[in-house]
Design brief:
By secondary structure, the protein is an all-alpha fold. 64% of the residues lie in helices and 0% in strands. It is built from nine helices and no strands. Helix 1 runs parallel beside helix 4 and helix 4 runs antiparallel to helix 5. The longest helix has 28 residues. The two termini are 29 Å apart. The mean pLDDT is 93.
């Protein structure tokens, strides 16, 4: 039985591998993970220890081998220099919490639609319309995040 790595205990890549070990006992060791992903075990140790940022291809290989699509979002939203500025960080939530999040975000859809129609109807945005537009933008961001989190859940638990 493989030991738990104390230095990597909070690392998302390590945690995903350990979670995947429940379905594939070969992933319990870095040697087994190397065979499953093609990533050298010493490089994997450095990634899991937070010393190295993995290449996108490595993240993809880990996400596939570990059945952990959240790794792709984590990389893009938190490690990729371009993604940090453009990708919404998401969590892989349980379906009950996710349902509440999605429904709460969708509740504001009608308000967003009304705001965008009102503000854009005359073809320009005035200074006094900016607060409404900013509020609508925040609501859209919440809907985007909820949608992305639902997509992660479906990818992990439903898609092949």
């Amino acid at each position: 039985m493989a030991r738990n790595a104390t230095k990597a205990a909070n690392n998302v890549f390590y945690l995903a591998r350990k979670e995947a070990e429940k379905l594939n006992d070969r992933l319990g060791s870095r040697e087994g993970a190397e065979e499953e992903t093609g990533i050298d075990r010493t490089r994997l140790a450095r990634i899991e220890g937070g010393v190295l940022v993995p290449y996108p291809e490595e993240v993809w290989m880990m996400a596939q081998a570990y059945q952990a699509p959240q790794l792709c979002n984590h990389y893009c939203a938190r490690l990729c220099p371009l993604g940090i500025k453009t990708i919404t960080p998401c969590e892989l939530r349980q379906i009950d919490r996710l349902t509440v999040t999605v429904l709460a975000a969708m509740r504001s859809a009608e308000d967003v639609q009304e705001t965008i129609l009102d503000v854009g109807a005359d073809g320009h945005v005035t200074r006094d319309e900016l607060p409404r537009l900013k509020k609508a933008m925040k609501q859209l961001e919440a809907m985007e995040r909820a949608s992305m989190e639902l997509r992660l859940w479906i990818t992990k638990y439903i898609d092949d």
